[in-house]
């Protein structure tokens, strides 16, 4: 699907969708338990992959009047009856790889072309260190993967600068091993707040896990028991970032974004980044609302070590801001659905922005008046599509984005929300 976004002003109320990261974890944690109700869950392409994995392990997942009823597999997963297809979802593949290593048998995992090009090697090595066996069929550290269990637990040494999802996966599965898992990080951890989200969800399911001097530790022999059998997912700050950015670039008189409560989500940093760039923004933390108005933005420097998913949003903001925006510590952002550093450089250049790409950084020399509508490509990546749509709001003329259906991965109603904010979105 192609979507065309004309230069527009936006106004009104918008709700951030439920968090993708929390939803994945809540579904899998409920799967490890005897069962749970998950309220305010995100129903999207990626979270449906995790639902499918829980069912493949012997659980059952059903939507009953907008509440997800998960019947758990109760501790150790069963050997799946078929290949587990994780689609486009890195989180599903990483969390499921170690869950599969708990089962007494062989599991095969695959995904779409994007997911089959993303790095899994350190996680395969970690499963081997825990006494299981995990292989890439092509021996290149990428899916398809063949995982054999059961693992009993132990100590693993793993790099922290490829994906924090490896650590999250080891902690979630480690809790139900006999011996527990000690994760020793051999390099600095990137995307660390996502591990904090994992620790928070584990705690909410009665599972103990802690940070250690050199990494993380989860004792074994634990069981997942959700408080009162229920879990409620908070709003998603990565998704909110597009709405907040739209308000800062084109809010006239203002955009009010709901479901933005303080959270372990690193991407709540978007509030500080926008403020630092000069956005007229007020955040009512208690009521989870942020009001933002069209503002003159100026360039800044942002370290995305903790917040990789904000890179596309910040690149768009930088393209419209005066001066240079430097996005640094960004190498791990190349390992996503697409290489987002080069994707944003390429696509924003088509819209007239001056962008310089370095291995670990993106430099955007901005100026709203310089942006022009263009035909741009979503490159199979939901976040690139949404960030380019926001850039389209301030580009002269019309911006047409290919592959716009990919927003279904994390924010299925994104273009409906833009329409409700007053953008004359057309789809073909
Ligand atoms: O654990 C998670 O929910 C996620 C972790 C991050 O990935 P990395 O840890 O691979 O950087 C992030 O980019 C992804 O969108 C979601
Ligand atoms: C990278 C992302 O997700 P995942 O790793 O689950 O594919 C994302 O949502 O931006």
From TrEMBL:
The active site is at 309 (proton acceptor). Monomer. Pfam families: EPSP_synthase (PF00275). One of its GO terms (cellular component) is cytoplasm. InterPro entries: Enolpyruvate_Tfrase_dom, Enolpyruvate_Tfrase_sf, EPSP_synthase, EPSP_synthase_CS, RNA3'P_cycl/enolpyr_Trfase_a/b. It is found in: Cytoplasm. Keywords: Amino-acid biosynthesis, Aromatic amino acid biosynthesis, Cytoplasm, Transferase. Phosphoenolpyruvate binds at residues 20, 90, 118, 165, 340, 383. It catalyses: 3-phosphoshikimate + phosphoenolpyruvate = 5-O-(1-carboxyvinyl)-3-phosphoshikimate + phosphate. Belongs to the EPSP synthase family. The keyword Cytoplasm applies. One of its GO terms (molecular function) is 3-phosphoshikimate 1-carboxyvinyltransferase activity. It comes from Halarchaeum grantii. GO terms for biological process: amino acid biosynthetic process; aromatic amino acid family biosynthetic process; chorismate biosynthetic process. Its main location: cytoplasm. Its EC number is 2.5.1.19. PROSITE patterns: EPSP_SYNTHASE_2. 3-phosphoshikimate binds at residues 20-21, 25, 163-165, 191, 309, 336. NCBIfam families: aroA. Catalyzes the transfer of the enolpyruvyl moiety of phosphoenolpyruvate (PEP) to the 5-hydroxyl of shikimate-3-phosphate (S3P) to produce enolpyruvyl shikimate-3-phosphate and inorganic phosphate. It is an enzyme of class 2 (transferase). This is 3-phosphoshikimate 1-carboxyvinyltransferase. It comes from the Archaea.
């Amino acid at each position: 699907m192609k979507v065309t976004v004309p230069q527009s002003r936006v106004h009104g109320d918008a709700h951030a969708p439920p968090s993708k990261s929390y939803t994945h974890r809540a579904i899998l944690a409920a799967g490890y338990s005897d069962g749970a109700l998950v309220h305010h869950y995100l129903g999207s392409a990626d979270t449906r992959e995790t639902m499918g994995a829980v069912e493949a392990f012997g659980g059952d997942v059903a939507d009953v009047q907008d509440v997800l009823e998960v019947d758990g597999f109760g501790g150790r997963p069963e050997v799946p009856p078929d290949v587990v297809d994780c689609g486009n979802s890195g989180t599903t593949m990483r969390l499921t790889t170690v869950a599969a290593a708990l089962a007494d048998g062989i599991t095969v995992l695959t995904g779409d072309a994007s997911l089959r090009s993303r790095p899994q090697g350190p996680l395969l090595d970690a499963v081997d260190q825990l006494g299981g066996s995990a292989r890439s069929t092509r021996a290149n550290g990428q899916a398809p993967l063949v995982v054999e269990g059961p693992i009993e637990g132990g100590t693993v040494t793993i790099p922290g600068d490829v994906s924090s999802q490896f650590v999250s996966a080891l902690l979630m599965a480690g809790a139900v091993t006999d011996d527990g898992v000690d994760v020793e990080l051999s390099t600095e951890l990137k995307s660390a707040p996502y591990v904090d989200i994992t620790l928070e969800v584990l705690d909410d399911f009665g599972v103990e896990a802690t940070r250690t001097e050199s990494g993380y530790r989860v004792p074994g022999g634990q069981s997942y028991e959700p408080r009162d059998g229920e879990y409620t997912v908070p709003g998603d700050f990565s998704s909110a970032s597009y709405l907040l950015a739209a308000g800062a670039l084109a809010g006239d008189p203002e955009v009010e974004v709901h479901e933005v409560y303080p959270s372990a989500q690193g991407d709540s940093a978007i509030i500080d980044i926008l403020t630092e760039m000069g956005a007229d923004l007020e955040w009512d933390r208690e009521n989870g609302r942020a009001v933002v108005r069209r503002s003159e933005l100026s360039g800044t420097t942002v370290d995305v070590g903790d917040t990789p998913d904000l890179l596309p949003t910040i690149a768009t903001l930088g393209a419209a801001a005066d001066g240079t925006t430097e996005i640094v510590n960004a190498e791990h952002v190349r390992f996503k659905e697409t290489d987002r550093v080069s994707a944003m450089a390429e696509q924003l250049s088509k819209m007239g922005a001056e962008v310089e790409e370095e291995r670990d950084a993106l430099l955007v020399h901005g100026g709203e008046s310089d942006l022009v509508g263009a035909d741009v490509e979503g490159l199979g990546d939901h976040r690139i599509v949404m960030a380019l749509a926001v850039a389209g709001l301030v580009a002269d003329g019309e911006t047409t984005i290919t592959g716009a259906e990919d927003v279904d991965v994390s924010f299925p109603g994104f273009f409906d929300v833009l329409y409700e904010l007053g953008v004359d979105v057309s789809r073909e």
